[in-house]
Design goal:
single chain, 367 residues, alpha+beta, disordered N terminus
Length: 367
């Protein structure tokens, strides 16, 4: 027996409160679907889907259908903790599990909050299979034991979630403002407009990317991955595992996607193992370059427009090396980096506050 919101509950299996949805379509557009969701559109730890692709533009081969209100769970690399509620109908990747509630649960939000707990993700990771790209499946998640509150308690928790949504909306508006401010500054770098960043004279050099950095191929992590390894293994979307070995040890580097996610540069410090679908980029010591400035610059470029793959998005080293860059004196770069890092700090603080609110919901016994 529990008190307040944590009133009497019973232990059930995850499969007792939800089911896997297995709807498909052969012709998404003809069937009225215009949006699709890939794993890259699910943000780690987020309850909402804030990005998606357009079927008519990207022509994905996905056939799995989801409906508004369904939960989408990333089954590949479950340690990334990707699961969110769909707010529209569409199709999704085969690496996504679509689930819907059963009658003993008042709303899919209740199930989503259960999913976003450490215990659930630990179960998903422990029961997944595969070394390079581990996958889970519903039949394995099905066995996870849930402490489920009765319907009345679920209703009260949903009221709390409504308050969370209001905070989340305000957070989104703040992040949008921060994003626009950051983009305006980066845009000035892209067009070479640096006058507002210095009250003293400075020079600007026109360079190719190859003049500033060396662009090196990553290497397959096959055989070196260890769960308790010291060094992160980096893919184009971030950390994908750990190892006791490293491929490069540098004060700082920029990671660029070679295959798959090609439009999200990563700035990293220290020893790591970039995988073979990435390039790792090191500063040429002869150049007076703040590498963090170059990272921000590359974030502002539409790298997807340089895609050379007909199926999986791809970039070649030769294409990257030809990118034109207007480079101001290093002290101007330093000023810009200082401003952008302060903006990022505000963004991180805001994100931490919304995570803390979500953690309050996680204190109740039903999850």
């Amino acid at each position: 027996m529990s008190t307040d919101l944590n009133m009497e509950y019973k232990e059930v299996k995850f499969g007792d409160i939800c089911r896997e949805v297995k709807l498909t379509t052969k012709d998404p557009i003809a069937d009225g679907y215009d949006k699709y969701i890939g794993l890259e559109h699910l943000d780690s730890g987020s309850l909402k889907i804030k990005r998606w692709g357009l079927i008519a533009e990207d022509k994905p081969t996905f056939t799995r259908v989801f409906k508004k209100g369904h939960i989408l769970i990333g089954k590949r690399r479950p340690y990334l903790k990707k699961a969110a509620i769909a707010e529209f109908d569409g199709v999704c990747s085969g690496d996504i599990i679509v689930i819907d509630k059963k009658d003993n649960v008042i709303d899919n939000i209740v199930i989503l909050l259960i999913i976003h707990t450490d215990r659930f993700w630990e179960h998903a990771v422990q029961t997944s299979s595969g070394s390079l790209s581990p996958r889970t499946k519903f039949s394995l998640l099905n066995e996870f034991i849930v402490s489920l509150n009765p319907i009345d308690a679920q209703k009260r928790i949903l009221n709390l979630y409504d308050s969370y949504q209001k905070i989340d909306k305000a957070h989104d508006e703040l992040i949008a403002s921060i994003y626009n401010l950051k983009n305006n500054i980066v845009h000035k770098c892209l067009i070479g407009d640096y006058e507002k960043f210095s009250n003293v004279e400075f020079s600007i050099s026109n360079k190719k990317l190859k003049d500033l950095i060396s662009i090196n191929y990553g290497k397959s992590p096959l055989g070196i991955k260890k769960d308790n390894g010291e060094y992160p293994i980096l893919g184009s979307s971030g950390v994908v595992g750990y190892s006791d070995e490293y491929l490069v040890d540098s004060d700082e580097l920029i990671l660029l996607g070679r295959k798959g996610t090609i439009d999200k540069p990563i700035y990293f410090k220290g020893a790591c193992w970039p995988i073979d679908t990435t390039f790792y980029c090191l500063s040429k010591k002869s150049e007076r370059l703040n590498l963090k400035w170059l990272f921000f610059f590359l974030e502002g470029i539409d790298l997807r427009s340089l895609n050379e793959g007909s199926g999986v998005p791809s970039l070649s080293r030769a294409t990257l090396e030809k990118i034109d860059i207007s480079v101001p004196d290093k002290f101007v770069q330093d000023v810009i980096v200082n401003i952008l890092e302060k903006i990022e700090a505000v963004e991180a603080t805001s994100l931490n506050k919304i995570i803390n609110v979500l953690n309050i919901l996680k204190t109740f016994k039903f999850i």
